Amino acid sequence: MTKPKSTRIDKASFGFLWDRLISITDEAYGTLIRSSFSPIVREALDATCQLFDSRGRSIAQAWAGPPSFIGTLPTTLSEILKVIPKEDIRPGDVLATNNPWIGTGQVNDISVILPIFGKNNRGIIAYAGAVSHLPDIGGQLWSATSTDVFEEGLQLPPVKLARRGTIDPLLKEIIRANVRLPAQTIADILSDISSVQTMERLLRSVLKEYRIADLEYISDQIIETSADTVKKDLSQMPHGKCKSEVMVEGTDIDHKISCQVTVNEKSLEVDFAGTSRKSNFGINSPLIYTRAYTIYAAKCVVSPYVPNNQGTMDLFKVSAPEDCILNPLPPAACGARHIMGWHAPIAVWRAMSQIVPEKVVADPGLAASCTIKGSDSKGRTFVAITVIGVGGMGARAHYDGLDTTGIPTVTSLISAEVMESTTPLLVEELKLISDSGGPGKYRGGLGAAYTIRNISGKPAKVAFIANKFRFAPEGLEGGHAGMRRKSFVNGKEVDSMGMYTMPENGTIRMENAGSGGFYDPRLRETDKLEEDLRNGFVSLKAAREIYGYGV
User: Fold this and answer.
1) What are 240-284's pLDDT values in tens digits?
2) Residue 68: domain span
3) pTM of the full predicted structure?
4) Radius of gyration, CA atoms only, the chain
5) Total number of domains in the chain
6) Helix (H) and strand (E) counts for the chain?
7) How far apart are CA 480 and CA 473, in angstroms?
8) What are the residues whose beta carbons fall under 8 Å from the beta carbon of 435, sequence distance 6 or more?
9) pLDDT per residue over 151-196, tens digit each?
10) When you count CB atoms within 10 A of the terminal residue's CB, does the N or C end of the chain come out lower?
11) Which of 227, 253, 288 is the last residue of a domain?
12) Which helix (H) or strand (E) holds 162?
């Protein structure tokens, strides 16, 4: 069927319009970040924005945002429309859910969708979507210790958060009644709504400027161009199968992730058959989250420079056995789903190192958080997520790993100054850990250590959400493993997935994991090693014993 002439644009305008659509999501993302009330969004940038065509296909995303949100939101939109069909949607309606199995894998994140209607409200021509991590969603403290999803907080099935431009008052009160920080939580949801409204306003302006009525032609071109580029990249890669196994710490038992990657000219398939059964605790990764991070990892290897959209995502196929730890069924606990989900990329990269070692990274030390809940001297509740220092990024085939960089997530760190100004907590120390990066010709990135003191005058509850404390981040091609992670309460080492009491004037400390090195450390250039020694990144003892310095 021939497209209406009003939707066609010339080839010269195609690239400009594609960039304009991406810039719309960027500006909306800026609106979301600037208007957010909670540090996890405002400082750590744990949010994203995306634009979809009338068929719900992703066509543009903001420059930032974790792979989880980018990879889950297209499926979230599709699943919401199964419950709230187009025929029941009116201009000004805002759709939302935080259901882990159709959202982002945990209840702490909310996905917000605004259907955008055409001229004179004649049908939906696009959808604007935003996702953000809420400061609180009720339940027990955000942790890895819950035993089912009901302990983790309020669940919202697909709902109309707003009807014809007005927030649903009953839904608003239900949310307020179930969270510890109602003002912050409601304000952050309003920030999400503001961001999708920004996308609607800017999209209308662009359509008017280009004198087109809809996005059908441009979205087809974006998706086809992106898919063709990825297929070309796949055709130039070695084809066949490669496998890996990754062990991950659990709260009661340890778990195995088995991974097989199959590469051919038209697609890349990842199968997690053989992976351990689901956990009894909150570290399970729903398939929607597992899929998002798996696609991210594969795309980083195959076509890292192609903008993300439906055309790139559909060429990567992901499967996992039903009710395994990477595909648990409800009501499995999944609040700390990243504990397992972040290992899907590690498994993919380890497997693909067998065929394209120059395109992967060694094991990262991963990000880790510690959630602290208490009250200040005036009795006001606070909830702090202490992501002020994380593990290192794995070394690459030609470069050292980056220090305290929490790949595969791309969220930022929360500064000590922001934490101290918004909570009764004092950051006493924040530093890089010498010798934490795995030795190699290219050294693994260093992990960071921090110590935080509770100066609220009252005890506080602490939940560590971390791993890599038993299984060190491995190196590649002869590179050594990085340092393991350690967590402490009042100087005593504790389980990095446990929940504890932080006494009045007590401290918590986390020594984050380093990351794996690449190639034999005795191949490291002397000038680089001497620079490490001057900076304190490598000790003289390690330089002599591991790198062979001065021998």
Assistant:
1) 999 999 999 998 899 999 999 999 999 999 999 999 999 999 999
2) 5-227
3) 0.96
4) 24
5) 2
6) 13, 20
7) 9
8) 483, 514, 537, 538, 539, 542
9) 999 999 999 999 999 999 999 999 999 999 999 999 999 999 999 9
10) N
11) 227
12) strand 159-163
